[in-house]
């Protein structure tokens, strides 16, 4: 396996160093597309190149915004006169506040006028960009379930198999710590990574209904026994050394957590499926030879289906209502179903959400991984959107802070539950 950086995708890499992180295209005569900054953005850079090659009137530019500040930057710029024209988001939960303030352009006419475009997406994924029956988001990336990645060489050296039960998890922790290996890499400096553990624990203990109640607006849902039990399990994991003793200062967005796994200093890593592309880009030999993956194990007596997944069904592009380029922006959205765009996603290790994606997965850098991920999502009884994307920012932001304090021992499980239930 080699890192796929050829053709349009390869040419787009040259743009990474030249795009700005300023917002708003009105002042400089260009249509600005805001992207979350990571190794996957190369596909969107290539799409902008293609759009510019075919557009006589409008020049588009990608502005990459660092991941750790992305949502804060969007919230700030949306209240200013320097809004981007098109911007990356996580779908309905993350853009509802802007819809309620009439800041986004409805896209129903685009879909109605171009049914072939509308039918290019898996319907359930397209629906993730709807709010109150109106379309505001168009899928732009692959599906992103959270998976349990592992370093095959490390587990083999310890005589271990990837955990299939919770007891296996505990045994893996003991075996790793005895050899001075971090059982689970964790980028605690970016506390949204810690959220993934609670999401799966709550789901496995109480099923998807627990968080669904919270997402539907009932803060007392945080007092469900599954939440307290999950918080207690987090503290047990920390006390057992599951994440080492320096996880609070390990950055995910700067690549430190992933490096722990690829360099064999950690055995496993609970992370979104984009972790595969990260290693494909930064440690291709490891991705080819030693990167393994699987599902989060069931819990004894838990009510959640072991096939449930959490994560992000996909990411979306939305168009701001005040853009000077509404027609060009919507034309740019059509790039997301262009055969070159979909093929480059597959080449970059993503599993697209277009209806023709399954036919292309054999061309993925690792067809086995791509098909595994596709089937994992396809067969999941429930796919829970990441908590910090499913909840409004007024709740999601302090929630992530409370999660960080739980992991760092600054609050007890009981205090954690009380604090979340108080969020309004």
TrEMBL record:
This is ABC transporter substrate-binding protein. It comes from the Bacteria. Keywords: Signal. Residues 1-22 form the signal peptide. Transmembrane segments: none annotated. The keyword Thylakoid does not apply. SUPFAM superfamilies: Periplasmic binding protein-like II. The keyword Signal applies.
């Amino acid at each position: 396996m080699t890192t796929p950086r050829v053709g349009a995708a390869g040419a787009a890499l040259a743009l990474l160093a030249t795009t700005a992180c300023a917002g708003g295209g009105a002042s400089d005569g260009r249509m600005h597309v805001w992207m979350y900054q990571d190794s996957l953005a190369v596909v969107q850079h290539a799409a902008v190149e293609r759009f510019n090659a075919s557009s006589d009137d409008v020049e588009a530019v990608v502005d990459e915004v660092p991941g750790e500040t992305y949502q804060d930057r969007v919230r700030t710029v949306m209240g200013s006169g320097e809004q981007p024209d098109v911007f990356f988001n996580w779908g309905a939960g993350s853009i509802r506040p802007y819809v309620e303030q009439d800041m986004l352009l409805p896209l129903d006419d685009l879909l109605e006028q171009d049914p072939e475009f509308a039918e290019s997406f898996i319907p359930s994924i397209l629906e993730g960009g709807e709010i109150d029956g109106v379309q505001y988001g168009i899928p732009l990336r692959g599906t992103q379930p959270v998976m349990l990645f592992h370093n095959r060489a490390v587990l083999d050296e310890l005589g271990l198999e990837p955990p299939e039960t919770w007891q296996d998890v505990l045994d893996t922790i003991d075996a790793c710590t005895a050899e001075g290996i971090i059982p689970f890499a964790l980028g605690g400096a970016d506390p949204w990574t810690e959220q993934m553990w609670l999401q799966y624990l709550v789901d496995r203990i109480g099923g998807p209904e627990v968080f669904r109640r919270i997402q539907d607006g009932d803060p007392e849902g945080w007092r469900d026994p599954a939440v307290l039990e999950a918080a207690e399990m987090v503290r047990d994991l920390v006390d057992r050394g599951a994440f080492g003793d320096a996880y609070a200062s390990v950055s995910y967005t700067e690549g430190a957590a992933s490096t722990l796994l690829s360099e064999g200093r950690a055995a496993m890593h609970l992370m979104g499926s984009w972790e595969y592309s990260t290693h494909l880009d930064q440690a291709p030999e490891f991705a080819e030879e030693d990167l393994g993956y699987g599902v989060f194990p069931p819990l004894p007596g838990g009510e959640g289906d072991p096939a449930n997944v959490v994560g992000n069904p996909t990411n979306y592009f939305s168009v701001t209502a005040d853009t000077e380029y509404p027609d060009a922006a919507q034309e740019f959205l059509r790039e997301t179903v262009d055969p070159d765009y979909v093929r480059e996603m597959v080449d970059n290790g993503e599993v697209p959400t277009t209806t023709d994606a399954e036919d292309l997965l054999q061309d993925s850098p690792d067809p086995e991984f791509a098909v595994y991920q596709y089937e994992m999502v396809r067969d999941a009884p429930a796919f829970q959107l990441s908590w910090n994307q499913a909840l409004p920012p007024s709740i999601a932001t302090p929630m992530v802070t409370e999660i960080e304090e739980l992991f760092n021992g600054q609050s007890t499980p009981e205090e954690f539950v009380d604090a979340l239930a108080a969020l309004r």
